[in-house]
Amino acid sequence: MIVPFKSGRVVDHDPKSLEYKVPLDAEIKTVLWEHKAPILNQASSNACVGFSFAQMLNTEHFNDVRTKAKSADYVDDQFAYKIYQSATEIDEFPGQFPKEDTGSSGLAMCKVAHRAGWISEYQTAKGWEEFQKAIQTAPVYVGTFWTNQMNQPDNDGFVKPFGTELGGHQYLVIGLNVEEEYITILNSYSNKFGINGRVKMKFNHFSELLHNGGDAMIIKP
Predict the structure, then answer these.
(1) Strand 121-125 and strand 182-186: pairing?
(2) pTM of the entire structure?
(3) What domains appear along the chain, each with residue ranges and CATH number?
(4) What is the CA radius of gyration of the chain?
(5) CA angle 135, 44, 164 (to 5 degrees)
(6) Where are the beta strands (DSSP E) in 29-113?
């Protein structure tokens, strides 16, 4: 199945932000963070940084942050577009949503949340080893390139980063399965994508994505 969705993540590896790295003393084990909310849908927009951040707020781990940002109810597509617009207004790239839908960065989205007082800080994980530590403490806000074959999950929900590169994409990683060596991604392509909005990726494939200009952030309330 090929879905007509876009990506929209712009790479912004700010040296100052990279100084705030994740703790390196966490035990690496299997983890799966709960997400009970409806799956959001960025559709044909480039608003992935806003939608994946909103999906993160909708996890059970971020109940308190979500209350600060909106209410006890789950945030929706409208909220995701609103915070994406805020990110395009403060980032260093041309174009501001909704007049111009040119994408933004995960870093800009984190800055929006920090300035609004929803979160206390955000920390960066560079590479596979740091990512494994990061996901032990919270769902991880990830940006990598995205390919056309990643839009085509197999029957078991697995995707592979092969084929034509479509650009950068921001998404949420909610799981690490140490025994079977795969991660679980919660995307923003509706509940029809993969298995209820979720897809899986083998460790070696995801490690390669992080190595090739990817980044991952953990957010602290």
Answers:
(1) unpaired
(2) 0.89
(3) 30-220 (3.90.70.10)
(4) 16
(5) 70
(6) 31-32
